[in-house]
Each structure stands twice: as structure tokens, then as C-alpha cells.
Amino acid sequence: MAIISRGFTDRRSAADVKLPPGQYLTTDFPVLSAGPTPQVSLDQWEFTIRDEHEILRRWDWKSFRGLPAETFTADLHCVTRWSKLGTSWEGVSLDALLAGVTTDTPYAMVHSYGDYTTNLPLQDLRNGQAWIAFRFDNEDLAPEHGGPARLLVPHLYLWKSAKWVRGITLLAQDKPGFWEGFGYHNYGDPWREQRYQGD
Amino acid sequence: MWRVGAVLALHDETATARTITLTVPGWPDHLAGQHVDVRLTAADGYSAVRSYSIASAPNHENRVEITVERLPNGEVSPYLTQQVAVSDRLELRGPIGSWFVWRVQQTEPVQLVAGGSGIVPLMAMVRSRASASSAAPFRLLYSVREPAAALYRDELQALASRDASVSLSYAYTRATPPGWTRPPGRIDAALIAGTTWPASLGPTCYVCGPTSFVENAASLLTACGHRPDRIRTERFGPTGERK
Fold it and tell me: N or C, where is chain A less crowded by C-beta within 10 Å?
């Protein structure tokens, strides 16, 4: 039974679109990170896909940028309750990066410069659902938003879209990443409002 | 789970910030730095939720204080700062988050760096240290727009004057008190060098404020030699109502 707050009213405009439960719309781009923004130089940057035994794929910035890139738009939903709709990006699809990687391991751990990690099922990275993005709004991705390159997996809360991404490890067993180990939900579907453990 | 809290007291900290003290039956003890979700529901069933940092130290009295800064076009903060009355009931969920926290078992030096209402979770740490009689050496660098915008000024002053292990420095970005030698401006390398723990002492740093403030302060700390993994940050964006 909800407590009614006298005098509190719905101040959204009637034109508001449908958002996941508990989210509100913003037009700017707030930042949420656990620590300082890492400065990653392009000549040191690399992105790898590995399993528990060995590196399966490795790109430096030049070979990564030589891969076919896509432009796409995405709706972003942050667990801190803001949503930003129709953002435009350029990046390389995980389908292209994972092409030819045959594995029966069902989980992935994403690693970032600055030691951030986040976990998700490997199938959430396939089938046009995830990109390594390097441009936002027709500009190179700013460091505070994850530049030079970040994962974007917009159907999950934004903490799954690891900034400053440096690689993906394929795992047979699921393990919690950074926020997942600090009380946030293991999967993080905004439409099911999976914010915290137990949701 | 959502709990129902009753408003015990209201206190205006500044012209735009109000502290709400709630008693929440069944509240699990929180840690300094954690936040709480507050849910408001309108008569027609519409509801809105925002996160607020907890300002009060952990206690065993089911008491939770939040300090809310009113945002001009906010949806929840105008209600919480202007309309909520003593004995009103509010729905709360939490405590939430176990990364940006200070635990009383920590004994290493602590460097707090606050921008504006980013002081709130850091105040919980200062209060937690005091209520636990911790000896951990604390330094706070607190950047505000102008003197009148500082939250908790008297309480911080009192804590710092009776405990030599707590020191307090202010920085002003727009207007300074009379006779203040540093011209208004954002935190810079000289101020960090002059007022914060040197990296060689291995402090844990907690930085909280608006995004641009945190970006600047965290890079300055890193440039002074603090290890990035010893710098914990909490940011709120232009629309974020988390404090």
C-alpha cells in the first residue's frame, strides 16, 4: 500500500514516451564511475578476446579501426534512474569481433582500463545487441564517457556498458563483476527493474 | 523492500538545502557513504523515485537523515525541500551501495574532497568517525560556490576544533569570505598540494560532487601520485538528484 504524498503531482509532460519502470527522462549525459577516469593513449590501446586458457583475438587501435563499423542509435537506461533516448553512436558490432570464435562457454567478463569489470551472459553480446563504440554524437568518445572505446549493450542497465574497455574473457562459470559484487543485480534488465540484488 | 519512514524533524541548511530526519522502523544499520531511494506517490498513483546520500552516521535508533538540494526543475527535490512536513510518512528503500563507503574498522588516513552538495555522504563519514571515536586521521577539502552555500559549517568547525586529527579546508569558486587570500576558482594543483594528505601516507580518498568537479579533483589527486585504486568517486550529473 503506497503512501500518498499530499500535494505531490505528476509533472511530466503528456508527450513523454514509455520508459522502463522507475526511470525518468534526461537530455544531458550524466556520468557515473567508481574512480578516476583512466587516460588511455591510442598507441597503447588494445582489445582482446580470451578464454580461461589463451588469447583468442587481439586488436591494436589501427587494426580495430580497420574493422567494419556501424552507426546505430540506442536508448540508455542508468540504474541511477535517468534514461536518455535516441543517442547516436559509431562502433564495431560484437558479432564482428566474435566472428569465428567458437565456444560453448556461456558467460563473459568484460575488463576495462582502470580495472573495472562487469559480467553478462555471452548471448547478450551477440545478435546485434552489443558494440565496442568509439564515437558519440559524431565526435570521438570523450574520456569521461569511456573513450577511446567503450562497450555498449543498451538493453541492460548502463553499468554493463563498460567504459574504457580493454577485453572480454569467456567463462564457463558466471562470476560477479565490480558493481555486481557491491550489491547490484547480476543481470540488470531495466524493463524488469533489476537494479539491486534480489530484484 | 520498501519501508515507511516518518519525518521527525526538518532543518534548513542553506537557502536551497534541507535536512530531513526520518525514523524508519526496521531500518538495517547503514554504512557511511551509502544512499537511500525515496519514493513519492501522487494521489492518482503516479510515483517517482530518487536516490539521496545518507547524511547521518550509522546508529541503532532506526534514524536516517538525508540532505536534499532543491533543483530548479526537479521533480522530487522541490517537494522534499518545500512541502514535506513533520510527521509525514515517506517510502524508503535501502541502504544501497557498498563501494563508496567508509567503515569504522578503517584506520588509514582519509582524504575527503567535496564539491557542493557532494559533502553529504562525506559528512556521514565524518559523523561516523566521531560517533565511533575512531582515531583515523581525516582531512576534508570542501569546495563551495560561496560561503553561504556551505552545508554543516558549524558542526564541521566544532568537530575540527576539538579533534586535532580532523582538519578542514574550504575552497570558494564564485565568492570568498572577506579577507580570504585565495581568489575564487576551482580546485587546482597548488590547493591539493597545500591542503590534502600526501600520497606517500597512503590515504583512501573519497571524492563526491558534480561530474566536472569529480573529474578535475580525481585527476589532480592522481597527478599528485595517489593510486587510482585508492580514489573512490561518486558523481551526480546535471539532472542527477543523487547527493
Answer: N
Are A158 and A79 within 8 A, CB to CB? Answer: yes
pLDDT per residue as tens digits for the range A42-55? 999 999 999 999 99
d(CA B79, nearest CA chain A) in Å: 7
Number of structural domains (chain A) is 1
Q: What is the CATH number of domain B110-236?
A: 3.40.50.80
Q: Which residues pair with B20 in a beta bridge?
A: B10, B66
Instruction: Return the SS3 of B231.
Output: strand
Chain B residues touching A81 at Cβ < 8 A: 49-51
In CATH terms, the superfamily for domain B3-96 is Translation factors (2.40.30.10)
Computed on alpha carbons and rounded to an integer, the radius of gyration of chain A in Å comes to 18
Cβ distance A33 to B235 less than 8 Å, yes or no, reads yes
In terms of residues, how long is chain A? 199
Q: What is the ipTM of this complex?
A: 0.79
Nearest-angstrom CA–CA distance, A109 and A59: 18
pLDDT digits (tens, 9 = 90+) for B130-150: 999 999 999 999 999 999 999
